[in-house]
């Protein structure tokens, strides 16, 4: 376990862009093996649109392997599964999946969460084929991806968004890391500038009050209950895209449900929390070490 935690420390430095580990951390010398990439795996087809994911597997880690699922941001209207910032997790013995989902211009909510959950069910249904630990899935996302990661986390035992194939497999995850993610879509309209309002209207296919019920259904805050998996919430205090009150409301709701989340509120930081990445490297390392590490034994 000590050796594995050293690898996770090295992972955190790579993931968060640290120039180098200190000389006191011998994990800096751990060699990094390239992951085995399985690209463009079709997990769902909607009409003529084949939705795909990329799966990255560690080269020498014994199966079954814990999985970290990356959900990209982009205001629900842009972004792709390419450019995976959590790819260094593979070097620490985790598998990594990066998934695509229908963007809001193609289909409004709930298409996005239905796709994400379909990807998780597909991965769990094929866990044996790819050497994954089916009961040890974690999810991480930023901005719109953080919203979807959060919504996945709080609806693991709620089948409302589970439609399509592999319904015998669960879409639940065992750990959630949310970075700058909207938690209450209704209040996200409050004081929204043109960029935020356009993204929200695109997601819902309309504005309030016309889409009030849909906005409520899209809000992770509404689903928090006892048994919600561990959360790590990372938020900039000066975020004008997703206000810090969104994270604060979610933290309070989780605590009320008996889920004590990890919380990192970064002062003098906007929506791009990665600008302060070195300040939370250790917390990310500790969170995933405790929730997904050593699960293949």
Element layout with pairings:
Elements: H1 2-15, E1 36-46, E2 49-57, E3 65-71, E4 95-99, H2 111-125, H3 127-130, E5 132-142, H4 144-154, E6 175-179, H5 185-188, H6 194-204, H7 212-217, E7 231-236, H8 244-256, E8 262-266, H9 281-291
Parallel strand pairs: 3-4, 3-5, 5-6, 6-7, 7-8
Antiparallel strand pairs: 1-2, 2-4
Helix pairs in contact: 1-9
Determine the N-to-C terminus distance.
11 Å
Overall pLDDT = 87
Q: What composes the largest sheet? A: 8 strands, mixed
State the shape.
globular
Q: Rg to the nearest angstrom?
A: 18 Å
Helices, by number, come to 9
Q: What string gives the helices and strands in order?
A: HEEEEHHEHEHHHEHEH
Find the CATH superfamily: Alpha/Beta hydrolase fold, catalytic domain
Q: Approximately what portion of the residues adopt beta-strand conformation? A: 15-25%
Number of DSSP E strands: 8
Runs in which pLDDT lies below 50 for 5 or more consecutive residues are: 1-30
CATH architecture: 3-Layer(aba) Sandwich
What does this structure look like?
The protein has 297 residues and is an alpha/beta fold. The chain has a single domain (2-291), classed as Alpha/Beta hydrolase fold, catalytic domain (Rossmann fold), CATH 3.40.50. Helix content is 30%, strand content 20%. Strands 1-2-4-3-5-6-7-8 form an eight-stranded mixed β-sheet, with helices on both faces. A hairpin with a 2-residue loop joins β1 (36-46) and β2. Mean pLDDT is 87; it is low at 1-30.
């Amino acid at each position: 376990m000590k050796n594995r935690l050293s690898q996770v420390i090295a992972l955190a430095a790579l993931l968060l862009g640290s120039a180098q580990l200190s000389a006191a951390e011998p994990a800096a010398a751990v060699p990094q093996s390239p992951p085995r990439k399985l690209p463009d795996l079709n997990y769902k087809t909607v009409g003529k649109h084949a939705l795909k994911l990329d799966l990255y597997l560690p080269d020498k880690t014994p199966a079954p392997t814990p999985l970290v699922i990356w959900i990209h941001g982009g205001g629900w209207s842009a972004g792709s599964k390419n450019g995976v910032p959590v790819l260094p997790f593979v070097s620490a013995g985790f598998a990594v999946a990066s998934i695509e989902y229908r963007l809001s211009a193609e289909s409004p909510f709930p298409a996005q969460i239905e796709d994400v959950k379909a990807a998780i069910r597909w991965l769990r249904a094929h866990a044996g084929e790819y050497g994954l630990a089916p009961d040890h899935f974690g999810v991480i996302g930023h901005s719109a991806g953080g919203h979807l990661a959060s919504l996945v986390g709080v609806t693991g035992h709620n089948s409302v968004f589970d439609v399509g194939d592999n319904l015998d497999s669960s879409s639940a995850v065992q750990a959630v890391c949310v970075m700058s993610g909207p938690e209450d879509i209704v209040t996200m309209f409050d004081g929204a500038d043109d960029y935020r309002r356009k993204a929200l209207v695109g997601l819902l296919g309309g504005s309030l009050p016309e889409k009030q019920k849909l906005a409520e259904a899209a809000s992770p805050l509404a689903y928090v209950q006892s048994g919600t998996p561990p959360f790590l919430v990372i938020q900039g205090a000066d975020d004008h895209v997703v206000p810090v009150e969104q994270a604060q409301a979610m933290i309070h709701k989780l605590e009320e449900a008996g889920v004590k989340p990890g919380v990192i509120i970064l002062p003098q930081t906007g929506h791009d929390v990665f600008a302060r990445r070195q300040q939370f490297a250790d917390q990310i390392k500790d969170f995933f070490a405790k929730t997904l590490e050593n699960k293949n034994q």
